[in-house]
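On clarity, I found the account of how folds are encoded harder to follow than it need be. What matters is that the chain and its backbone geometry are given together, residue for residue. I therefore recommend that a typical entry be quoted early in the introduction. An entry of this sort, consisting of the sequence and the corresponding backbone structure tokens, reads as follows:
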Amino acid sequence: MLFSLEKDQQYTETLIDRSGLLVSALPLNPTVREKCAAEAARFICAVPRELPNNVLLPDDYLKRKIYTKDDFVLWDATAKKISPVSVNTKEAIDARDVQIKNSTLFFVNNYGGKLYKLEISN
């Protein structure tokens, strides 16, 4: 995944294959690589609901200058479909170290440092 800041201060995320060819632009709000994982042609990302003005991604996030409140989305690159992923918790989630294996999502929540495990359908 390539993450970039454009001239007009708009962030873009692009999926690039191993040979460096553009596969697709990711139709997501700005996020960072540590909040995304892939399994086959499915990508799951924790996407911040909002970001402070003048935030510099990914630097400010990686330096823990900001914390986010995330929602999860599942993007099927083959079907070009985005679906929300339900996380049944009352806690705010700022996900990092997102991984997916056999349709099971794992991530650490920056609020409290707990490890989460969720089954993903679809």
About this structure: The helical segments are 59-62. Strands lie at 2-5, 11-16, 22-25, 36-39, 42-48, 70-76, 81-85, 95-101, 104-109, 115-119.
